[in-house]
Write a structure and sequence with these properties.
Length: 315
């Protein structure tokens, strides 16, 4: 049961929380967001909210419950929209979403096929151990790393006490706590799940350029797990893998900016703002060039739509 909780129940919980928060962002935006982007957008919201709540000691332990409440709120408010999406689903709709499952199974294969809980981070520089310890500490004591234990406390303070990004850590700790499983067994699975969200965004982009469901699913899966990215997963590089789906999400929102701006007006900026904040939470200031360039592209796309509409109205 412990093994199934790690490789089956934890992923289902992660995807459900991401879906609920994605639906909540859609509700706040006031416009329909492509189904393939809902989970990545919800994950971005999990990162942003958990970064705020784990910044103060009084609110840090409440983080899992805050994320759960937000997800349930999104699911509850969007029941009608979900039923409508289901009724209007196109033929072969499941091909593109299957990219997420395929990517998860590929990246988490070492854990799944071993038929036991395990940990793939090869600890070249003890990175995995430090990341797990930091995630656990954040959830209980926020950014207070004065543990009184010299080596443990000094190491964590050297990492997280100096502006080290903790976006992935706060989500891992929160969803892990809700699952009831130890973080060491969830660490590798969590990173596989992050890449499954990247596959969804890539599948969405493939669909936008005209690929069919099957082709988009294959494209999204292959593009999400190139050799370098898979090596990062084996090493346990949580920052980079947390950043990947939200960076891709910003690009996808640029592609969708025209439709979103037309439907939501100024609130169309909300999904991009959440994705950008999540990118900064994931890898810190290193995300700034991506945020700036994608932000400029989104603005140009949105303003271009407004200009064309005014011109059309004028003539």
């Amino acid at each position: 049961m412990h093994y199934l909780s790690v490789v089956v129940l934890f992923p289902l919980l992660f995807w459900l929380l991401s879906l609920g928060c994605g639906l909540l962002v859609e509700r706040l935006t006031g416009a329909s967001i492509p189904a393939l982007l809902l989970l990545p957008l919800g994950f971005a919201m999990l990162v942003v909210v958990s970064q705020f709540t784990t910044w103060w000691v009084p609110t840090a332990p409440l983080t899992p419950w805050v994320l759960l409440v937000l997800a349930l709120l999104g699911l509850g408010l969007s029941r009608g929209a979900l039923r409508g999406r289901w009724r209007e689903r196109p033929r072969g709709w499941w091909w593109a979403p299957s990219a997420a499952l395929a990517t998860y199974l590929i990246v988490a294969a070492p854990e799944i096929v071993s038929l036991r809980t395990t940990f793939t981070g090869y600890l070249l520089d003890t990175t995995g151990a430090i990341q797990i310890a930091g995630a656990e500490r954040l959830l209980h004591y926020a950014h207070d790393f004065s543990t009184g234990i010299p080596v443990y406390g000094t190491t964590l303070a050297a990492y997280f006490g100096n502006g080290y990004p903790s976006g992935g850590h706060s989500v891992l700790a929160s969803v892990g706590w809700l699952s009831g499983q130890d973080l060491i067994w969830l660490y590798s699975v969590f990173q596989a799940l992050e890449l499954s969200l990247a596959a969804l965004v890539l599948a969405f982009l493939a669909r936008r350029v005209g690929l069919g469901g099957l082709a988009a699913a294959v494209t999204g899966t292959i593009a999400a797990v190139p050799a370098l990215v898979y090596a990062y997963a084996l090493m346990g590089s949580i920052k980079e893998l947390t950043a990947m789906p939200v960076l891709l999400l910003m690009g996808a929102l640029v592609v969708y900016a025209r439709e979103l701006r037309a439907a939501a007006g100024l609130r169309a900026a909300l999904p991009f703002a959440i994705a950008a904040a999540a990118a900064l939470g994931a890898i810190g200031i290193a995300a700034s060039p991506w945020v700036a360039l994608f932000g400029l592209a989104a603005l140009v796309a949105a303003v271009g739509l407004v200009t064309s509409r005014r011109d059309a109205a004028h003539f």
